[in-house]
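Narrative of accomplishments. A recurring question from our advisory board has been how the design workflow behaves on a single, concrete structure rather than in aggregate. To address it, we present the structure tokens for one chain from the evaluation set, followed by the sequence designed for it. No filtering or post-editing was applied between the two.
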């Protein structure tokens, strides 16, 4: 069974499609105009969309709705429904990312075949993507940079924990490297030839948690995909209470219930969970159930923020240069640039440093890296906690050259929104009070890639 969103303003046609989809076990969701269709898309996260090309209501036509769907969900299958004489428009829709199109009038069998086809293709694409991820994980063997004593101690404990199947709870500020440490634990474990699967819990709505973790119909959940290996539950505190209760039951029983079926599947999975807050804060705030906390907290590790391990800053800088440049260029830091890197408090942690180095790699034109090439995402906001209102902005402005202030402030706001939302564009745009299309336009204008804010967590 699949959830099928129908965006169609012809009421009779809606009914025919709904009846046909329900007859074969699908769950249709109706929207009679484009904007409402987009609202439904956010609310239910359908498996496929049937979209009328010539919408007359709501101010958006089919191509405009398609563009917004692609912004929200680049891989979501969309079937365009088009009338006689608009095939050229349908071809244009295919160029803009539609998965298929069917021409009205069509029989319900044709529509059902189109739905099954795009679902099969989507399932295959998901499987290929997963296999590519597994292959990439098999190649990445480098341990995290650990020159500082604090990080060496973390890695020592991580190596010991890796030899068991104990659950691990990682806490640390956003961007401090929890994701990388989880991968390191997997690589050091006897499970390293089996899958390493990541679940971005913050991106799951309450009604999607069970299907994402445990599967739906013939679609495998992340627990089944990770069988024999490691499952990373990133930002586990964002799962709602009901979802945490179901997760606890699976962890205690070692079996995964299969939705809409009586069968259950035994699984052998090492679980690593992350949180961007201290463990005691998570308990007091109620973000994490006490019983689930105790089940996961067989081993707990706190990743120190970058400001607490300044010995790692320059080695990380050099590591990121090698990552982005390889051996093609030979850069060196002058003494003034080194001093600036060591004085900065790195509110964005390792992610902020990585983004800086990527910018240098893209825009740098000389072998010597000086202070003028170090563009900090954040000013040293923690340096003066008792400053008067507006001081942080003043520090940012002072760090920018003439003619750079406006763009610098806008870039700071965009990147801060992505840091807070962990790369979730919908959440970031809401935080800023921008509509999604304008937010996307600003990201492209300033060359900001939201995926950069999903790594290194």
């Amino acid at each position: 069974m699949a959830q099928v969103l129908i965006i169609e303003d012809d009421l009779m046609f809606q009914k025919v499609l709904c009846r046909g989809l329900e007859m074969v076990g699908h769950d249709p969701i109706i929207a009679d105009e484009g904007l409402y269709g987009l609202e439904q898309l956010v609310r239910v996260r359908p498996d496929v969309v049937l979209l009328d090309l010539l919408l007359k209501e709501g101010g958006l036509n089919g191509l405009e709705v398609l563009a917004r769907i692609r912004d929200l969900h680049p891989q979501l299958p969309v079937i365009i429904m088009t009338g006689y004489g608009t095939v050229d428009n349908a071809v244009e829709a295919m160029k803009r990312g539609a998965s298929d199109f069917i021409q009205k009038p069509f029989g319900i069998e044709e529509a059902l075949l189109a739905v099954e086809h795009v679902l099969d293709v989507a399932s295959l694409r998901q499987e290929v993507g997963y296999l590519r991820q597994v292959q990439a994980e098999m190649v990445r063997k480098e341990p995290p940079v650990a020159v500082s004593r604090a990080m060496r101690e973390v890695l020592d404990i991580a190596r010991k924990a890796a030899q068991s199947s104990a659950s691990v709870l990682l806490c640390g500020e956003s961007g401090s490297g929890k994701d990388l440490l989880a991968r390191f634990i997997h690589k050091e474990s006897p499970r390293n030839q089996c899958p390493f699967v990541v679940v971005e819990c913050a991106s799951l709505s309450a009604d999607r948690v069970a299907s994402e973790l445990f599967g739906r119909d013939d679609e495998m959940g992340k627990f089944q995909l990770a069988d024999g290996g490691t499952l990373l539950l990133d930002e586990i505190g964002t799962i709602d209470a009901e979802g945490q209760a179901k997760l606890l039951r699976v962890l205690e029983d070692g079996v995964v219930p299969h939705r809409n079926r009586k069968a259950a599947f035994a699984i052998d999975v090492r679980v690593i969970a992350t949180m961007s807050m201290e463990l005691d804060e998570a308990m007091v705030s109620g973000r994490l159930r006490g019983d689930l906390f105790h089940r996961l907290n067989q081993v707990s590790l706190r990743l120190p923020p970058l400001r607490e391990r300044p010995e790692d800053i320059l080695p990380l800088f050099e590591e990121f240069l090698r990552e982005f440049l390889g051996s093609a260029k030979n850069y060196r830091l002058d003494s003034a640039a080194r001093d600036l890197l060591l004085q900065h408090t790195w509110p964005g942690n390792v992610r902020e440093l990585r983004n800086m180095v990527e910018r240098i790699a893209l825009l740098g034109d000389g072998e010597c890296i000086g202070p003028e090439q170090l563009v900090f995402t954040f000013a040293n906001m923690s340096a003066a906690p008792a400053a008067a209102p507006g001081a942080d902005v003043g520090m940012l402005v002072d760090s920018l050259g003439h003619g750079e202030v406006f763009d610098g402030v806008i870039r700071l706001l965009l990147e801060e929104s992505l840091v807070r939302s962990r790369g979730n564009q919908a959440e970031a745009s809401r935080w800023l009070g921008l509509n999604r299309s304008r937010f996307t336009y600003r990201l492209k204008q300033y060359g900001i890639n939201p995926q950069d804010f999903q790594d290194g967590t």
